[in-house]
């Protein structure tokens, strides 16, 4: 009988329950995938706590990315067959050992990428892809600031942005994380617990500041992020791990230099099949070529996901974390 992690009522890590699910078969246009590895992301915490409401109601199965093997295909499925290695990212539903998915949400895993790598990069890596290549297309000579540089998205983004020719500045919360980020493409990394990151960005850039700031932290960094931008610079706010940003006066953007702010999300950027395929192909290409190296630093059994969430929220994880069904 299939197993899954379900949340019946919002709460802490203990709200996740490991339980049986009824077996299912794929319908028309669907594929049954047996998971081999599942990614862990802050997005999962948001759905567990209720910060992001579940579009399907409760109970909810968290989990936004995974890799596995096709077990069975439904009527009319083209391009996938039993035995194919596949990966995907969705907002929910990955914390299980097998599941039925629409075939058009899946991509093939290239031979040069392992299942664990694929599970660790679908959400985080394609997030880095759309941020660096589409939200603000980073080019040679740009200066960027990326918060949470030692996190899963941050380590991918640092390497990729450096390859694109940018000067890459990051923030991290400990000396160990600073060193980790410096080893993954960052030119400068600021320990925000001991340094004022706004003052340090001004010093590093000799007052020119940044073309773009990528911020997944939210409440704690928002004001400072705006102060790190040059006139007409862009703040890409793609998460809120420290909390929701309160309402603010849009006139502040004018006062600080005609700034731009956007709140993008991956699932809009890959909603069309062509965009999904292009984003995944770009990601797999830089990983296969060794431009972006994937560091999986934590592995937990799926049944131990409560500990994984506690460690993630406690800032005890670095790089990518995967769950093993």
Explain what the structure shows:
With 325 residues, this protein is of the alpha/beta class. The protein folds into two domains: 3-122 and 267-324, Quinone Oxidoreductase, Chain A, domain 1 (Alpha-Beta Complex), CATH 3.90.180.10; 140-263, Rossmann fold (3-Layer(aba) Sandwich). The protein has helices at residues 42-49, 115-135, 152-163, 175-182, 197-204, 222-227, 251-255, 266-269, 273-288, 305-313, and strands at residues 3-7, 16-20, 30-39, 65-73, 85-89, 98-102, 107-108, 143-146, 167-172, 188-191, 210-215, 229-237, 260-262, 296-301, 320-324. The protein starts with a strand and ends with a strand. One of its GO terms (cellular component) is cytosol. InterPro entries: ADH-like_C, ADH-like_N, ER, GroES-like_sf, NAD(P)-bd_dom_sf, QOR-like, Quin_OxRdtase/zeta-crystal_CS.
For this entry, give a set of tags.
single chain; 325 residues; alpha/beta; Quinone Oxidoreductase, Chain A, domain 1; Rossmann fold; six-stranded parallel beta sheet; 10 helices; 15 strands; 26% strand
Structural class: alpha/beta
First-last Cα distance: 13 Å
Helical fraction equals 25-40%
CATH superfamily of the largest domain: Medium-chain alcohol dehydrogenases, catalytic domain
Number of discrete domains: 2
Domain Enoyl reductase (ER): 11-323
InterPro entries: ADH-like_C (IPR013149), ADH-like_N (IPR013154), ER (IPR020843), GroES-like_sf (IPR011032), NAD(P)-bd_dom_sf (IPR036291), QOR-like (IPR047618), Quin_OxRdtase/zeta-crystal_CS (IPR002364)
Pfam family, one: ADH_zinc_N
Keywords: NADP, Oxidoreductase
């Amino acid at each position: 009988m299939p197993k899954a992690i379900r949340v019946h009522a919002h709460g802490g890590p203990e709200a996740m329950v490991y339980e049986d699910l009824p077996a299912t078969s794929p319908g028309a246009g669907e594929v049954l995938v047996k998971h081999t590895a599942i990614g862990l992301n802050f997005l999962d915490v948001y759905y567990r706590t209720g910060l992001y409401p579940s579009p399907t109601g409760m109970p909810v199965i968290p989990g936004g990315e995974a890799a596995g093997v096709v077990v069975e295909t439904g009527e009319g499925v083209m391009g996938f067959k039993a035995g194919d290695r596949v990966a995907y990212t969705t907002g929910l539903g990955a914390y299980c050992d097998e599941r039925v998915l629409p075939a058009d949400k899946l991509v093939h895993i290239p031979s040069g990428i392992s299942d664990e790598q694929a599970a660790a990069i679908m959400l985080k890596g394609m997030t880095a892809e759309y941020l660096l290549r589409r939200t603000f297309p980073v080019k040679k000579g740009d200066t960027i600031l990326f918060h949470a540089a030692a996190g899963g998205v941050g380590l991918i983004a640092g390497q990729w942005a450096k390859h694109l020719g940018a000067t890459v500045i990051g923030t991290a919360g400990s000396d160990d994380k600073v060193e980790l980020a410096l080893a993954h493409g960052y030119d400068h990394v600021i320990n925000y617990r001991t340094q004022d990151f706004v003052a340090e960005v001004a010093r590093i850039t000799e007052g020119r500041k940044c073309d773009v700031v990528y911020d997944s932290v939210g409440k704690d960094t928002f004001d400072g992020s705006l102060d790190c931008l040059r006139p007409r610079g862009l703040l890409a706010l793609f998460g809120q791990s420290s909390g929701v940003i309160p309402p603010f006066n849009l006139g502040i953007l004018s006062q600080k230099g005609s700034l731009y702010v956007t709140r993008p999300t991956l699932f809009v950027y890959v909603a069309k099949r062509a965009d999904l395929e292009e984003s995944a192909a770009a990601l797999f290409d830089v990983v296969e070529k060794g431009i972006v190296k994937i560091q999986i630093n934590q592995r937990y059994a799926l049944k131990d996901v409560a500990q994984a969430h506690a460690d993630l929220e406690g800032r005890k994880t670095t790089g990518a974390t995967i769950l093993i069904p």
